[in-house]
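Posted in: Protein Modeling Q&A

I'm a second-year student putting together a small comparison for a lab meeting, and my supervisor asked me to include a predicted structure for Glycoside hydrolase family 1 protein. I've never done this before, so apologies if this is the wrong subforum. The sequence is pasted below exactly as I got it from our records. If anyone can share the structure token output, I'd also love a short note on what stands out.
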Amino acid sequence: MNNGFKTGFLWGGATAANQCEGAYNEDGKGLSTQDVMPQGIMGPITEVPTEDNMKLVGIDFYHRYQEDIKLFAEMGFKVFRLSIAWSRIFPKGDEMEPNELGLEFYDKVFDECLKHGIEPLVTISHYETPLHLAKAYDGWRNRKMIGFFENYVRTIFTRYKDKVKYWLTFNEINTLLHAPFMSGGIMTPKEELSKQDLYQAIHHELVASALATKIGHEIMPDAKIGCMVIALPIYPLTPHPDDIIKMMATDRSNLLFSDIHVRGQYPSYAKRLFEENNVHIHMEPGDEEILKHTVDFISFSYYSSACETADQDKKASQGNILLGTKNPYLKASEWGWQIDPQGLRYVLNTLYDRYQKPLFIVENGLGAVDELVEGPDGRKTVMDDYRIQYLNDHLVQIREAIHDGVDVMGYTTWGCIDLVSASTAELKKRYGFIYVDRHDDGSGTLKRYKKKSFEWYKEVIATNGESLQN
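Accepted answer (user: helix_wrangler)
Welcome! Here is the predicted structure, written out as tokens:
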């Protein structure tokens, strides 16, 4: 049996503009929703940016992108997933004309990637809506957002059509139900939003996503445009039929998003979901036609699985934005995210069986507290064998899924260089192959150091997965 990974498999790493760029107010950039979220997903929203927001500086990728991309090239990256900060291109979001300095920055970044033989994989909207759109329009609750987004995507597709072949529309679009401000720029407090409000906002995003796919295929016929969702395999906590039915319902609440992106219409099970939640999607003429513009591939983040039960007494939250019930058979990371490599094989098979579309794992990794020490060669490093083990085990399961017959395009580890956590806005929660000397109190030199995992991943890429340990 060969190692499974096809020739041309897209190995690489992933970041997001708001978690690494910094330079939040340079070269004409407007404020984004992330600039007023100093404590991450669940923390308070501030009126203006505050000094305790680590994302304002990030890891200063804005000024150090050449150094960082050179390190990615040294590892052998074939692809680098990054996002464009919408408010760098349209500082308020509702202008007609873009900010040229913002466009020039991404020209330089993409050119630097291509110089090193790295394909950019670009997320158009990664958890940062221009703050003005949130304040003036209540974000994606307002249908006008579709027009603003269309202007944005036409601008960047036209500008970068010869530099970027791979695009994603909205990062983890299925999180809008759970984190409406971060995911959708919705200023109205979550507790004041009805299911009607949330699903209507989701409809606006889904139409905008399909419209971006349509426009992208017109402007860039050879480009590949994908959706991006959180993949969360759901297991029944017990074999009790009530738990199986509850699992099915929870699974469908996530699959709804990929179903619409891939099949071009609302699935039949949405009818009951909407009836039971008193949801009536208002569709404008043409919406159904726009939704038929489907994606070329499905990308997803995978960090953990979850259990589901109908027994409310056994409910226990854990994990990422999409919460579930703790699995008694799995260990967890320092942040309580349960570790389940086989869940990745399972979800790859499930999605491929359902859609027969190419799949791309664009986020996967282990957040951990890393210690900078002196390595065997006298250089500072991090002996992150725990991260190597985590990634190795997940990659082995991807290989198994490929042997199962799944078409997997590529794999980009999350936070290939340390960056600010989206969920907690901490820097001590590190994911990277590259250690960045910056800390939660704002101290540090921002100097980069290669971790032990750097050389490990370099070998994995060089051998196209042959070096993985079963």
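A couple of things worth pointing out for your meeting: The chain has 14 helices and 14 strands. Residues 10-462 form a domain with the TIM Barrel fold (CATH 3.20.20.80).
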